[in-house]
Amino acid sequence: MRFLQFAVAAIGLVVSTAFASPADPKLGVEYVQLASPQPVQAVGKKVEVIEFFMYHCPHCNVLEPFIADWVKKQGNKILFKRIHMPSGANDPEAHLYLTLEAMGKLDELHVKVFKAIHVDRLRMNSDAVVMDWVSKNGIDKAKFTDAWNSFGVMTKMKRLPQILGNYKVESVPTLVVDGRFMTSPSVVDAANKGMNEAALSNATVQVLDAMVSKVAKTK
What we know:
The radius of gyration is 18 Å and the shape is globular. By secondary structure, it is of the alpha+beta class. Strands 1-5-4-2-3 form a five-stranded mixed sheet. Helix 2 runs parallel beside helix 9 and helix 3 crosses helix 7. It has helices at 8-11, 58-74, 92-103, 106-118, 127-135, 141-148, 151-167, 185-191, 197-216; strands at 32-33, 47-53, 78-84, 174-177, 181-183. Helix content is 49%, strand content 11%. The protein is built from nine helices and five strands.
């Protein structure tokens, strides 16, 4: 189980579970503030939301349908982005995500990747496995290879470690709102004990929804 561990001393917060409520989250309880706010791409009244995830992460897999449903309900209220945390400089899963994104194929294949790993038990731990999988799922292998090796995708791959360092993300799933506030199932779990994973994912989305609403009121 890979959960984000927050060093309370480092962020100067004392996390208290008193009066914890996912529907009415409190700073320092269900979410924390980044020590260094990050720039956002959202303009106007839109609120930027970033999900840091990994395809092989079981907790990301459980959270995915809850997040996807929530994002659909937000409409144009948010700018939602996903960033795949790499397990190394040449992580095939992160490379797959960025390539599908570049090809405009995420809507078609994002959920299928989770299924391949968590239901079909396919280990996408090499470029060859990824290439074989995409070719079996309706993607032209030559076009995929071109996108895989493209300057844009390779540049984004190289930037991932810097992005993770800027946000201080150490594990997944992690959610960042407006470049300033961070939550995760582990943080929500610490404040609301006794939930199974599905209930915890639902509670995490409740926290996320409340965070976005609070930020939106300041815009």
